[in-house]
Amino acid sequence: MNEKKAFIKNPVLRGFHPDPSICRAGDDYYIATSTFEWYPGVKISHSKDLIHWEHISYALTRESQLEMRGTPDSTGVWAPCLSWSDGVFYLIYSNMKNRDRSKDVNNYLVTAKSVKGPWSEPVFLNSSGFDPSMFHDDDGRKWLVNMKWVPQPTENSFAGILLQEYDPVQKKLTGKCTNIFKGTPLGLTEAPHLYKRNGFYYLMTAEGGTGYEHAVTVARSRKIEGPYEVCPDNPILTSSGSPAQQSLQKAGHASLVETPGGQWYMAHLCGRPVPGTRQCPLGRETAIQRIIWTDDGWPRLWQKGKFPDTEVETEIRKASGKEKADQCISEKDDFEKAELKEEWNTLRQPFGETRQSLSVRPGWLRIYGGMSLNSLFDQTMVARRVQAFSYTAETCMEFHPESVKQNAGLVCYYDTKNYLYLNVTWNEEKGCRCIGVECDRNGDIKESMLISDYICIPDKLPVKLKVTARGYKLQFSYSIEKDVWHEIGTAFDEGMLSDESAWSGDLSFTGTFTGMCCQDGMYGKIYADFDYFYYTENEE
Questions:
Q1: Contact 168/229 with Cβ under 8 angstroms?
Q2: Which pLDDT belongs to residue 319?
Q3: Of the listed 190, 378, 440, 494, which one is catalytic?
Q4: Annotated catalytic, 19?
Q5: For residue 401, which of 92, 120, 406, 503 is within the disulfide window of CB 3.0 to 4.6 Å?
Q6: Computed from CA positions of residues 192, 39, 329, 83, in that sequence, does the dihedral angle turn out positive or negative?
């Protein structure tokens, strides 16, 4: 038998994949991650070995499940929890409506017999706080835990972990709601998950905030209602205090899974900053660590210590012959299919024929002019995650504007206040179509700028648009003639499009996307047609 050791290469889900919830159904492993204001909601990835992961579905595909029009940046779907019990998948999620002190949030449950759906209409659970999670006890009872949010400025806003029973027949919470855990001195207690092992209920939480002080803490009790004893070696995972050159920072917000062979693993959030900075343009990603249990019944990292590893040994298994999990991605979408490929996402509203179309001009993606890139309502962007520091994205566009208020092109986007936009528009003074690069920095008109002068281009010809990221710099270029490319504007720091650069009094939570968009602030009728979109990851 040809067997060899196998290793998990972290992060296993690169680019914007935060708040991982891992579960096992039989021999299959699944991870659900947050999607915030992007549609579809809750991305689900699948693996047979914890090493090779494939995106297989989204759970929230209908506005009846997820209504987000007008929600601010970094709101929407927060911290889903995916679980499997009695042949049914349960997905709990928060729909956050604002990030102000009030934190208006509703928590919902959807179910499905297949992780690929169809997923049910949502069942409302509560609004007492975010990060809800469901625990299926071995006596058949089901319990919901979520953090308690208190909006009053005199209180600790992260006010503990609430526990309440869920009745699957009546489809509602029932019985007393109990605060079972007030947290540790690390504070900001959130992201609760319950597990049961050897007669103990284990409560895993995230603390310290989702930045560089992020951490995973554990407490346990003989009774589900508590009291809970705090692990003497908390936190069991953190990047806080790690060397600056360690690539996996922000480690926290974790969940556990047990293999059929009795081994345990932890999926957790992490971030990879641009070397020499604290900026993470890829957003918060997902990594996996191996867990062991001490003789006195506490979980620890297999490699000892508290810092995450980029390479984690797994169970001995047969050689799979599969490609490496960290292979570079190279994808071209010619828009030949009747449905949009799953790597694509839209903002706050699902892909729809009144906003975007693959059928009106077969072989092309048509995007109708929506509101500006600063809008929280009717944008029509189609974009995908950036998953590497070094990449190239390219498209070919046909677009014929008649007004300076009509634009279309290639965008590198973090949120409505932070983006770079290579776009074609109309120059009224010169009476011609033109191309240029715009930048928005935190929505501040003083920091927003035109990176390049607008350059006149022929009106009838298609234009190719490209962005290349190398050396942590972004450079745009365009082509009218075949294979003749012209750089436009200056190179820009990738770190501009990051959680930290987008910070405006509170952390932001997503990551860089690149894609196509169209705006019409004149008549709302113009459209742009895109022939293809090519995304490839470059070798450094």
A1: no
A2: 41
A3: 190
A4: yes
A5: 406
A6: positive
Q: Which residues in the chain show pLDDT less than 50?
A: 1-2, 318-327
Q: What's the pTM?
A: 0.95
Number of H helices, E strands in the chain: 0, 42
Query: 39 is written with which tokens?
Result: 């549609």
What distance in Å separates the CA atoms of residue 230 and residue 373, rounded to the nearest whole number?
Answer: 46
Q: Can 453 be counted among the known catalytic residues?
A: no
Name the residue type at position 63: E
Q: Is the peptide bond before 11 cis (omega within 30 degrees of 0)?
A: yes
Domains in the chain: ranges and CATH: 3-318 (2.115.10.20), 330-537 (2.60.120.200)
Residue type present at position 104: D
Q: Where are the beta strands (DSSP E) in 215-364?
A: 215-221, 229-230, 237-238, 249-258, 264-271, 284-293, 299-301, 311-313, 317-318, 330-333, 346-347, 356-357
| pLDDT (tens digit per residue) in 246-287 | 999 999 999 999 999 999 999 999 999 999 999 999 999 999
Structure tokens at 236: 């069991």
Q: Which of the following is catalytic: 19, 285, 378, 520?
A: 19
Judge if the upstream peptide bond of residue 20 is cis by omega within 30 degrees of 0: no
The single-letter code of the amino acid at 195 is Y
End-to-end CA distance of the chain: 38
SS3 state of residue 184? coil
Tens-digit pLDDT profile for residues 55-111: 999 999 999 999 999 999 999 999 999 999 999 999 999 999 998 889 999 999 999
Reduced to 3 states, what is the DSSP secondary structure of residue 285? strand
Q: Are 371 and 437 in contact (CB under 8 A)?
A: no
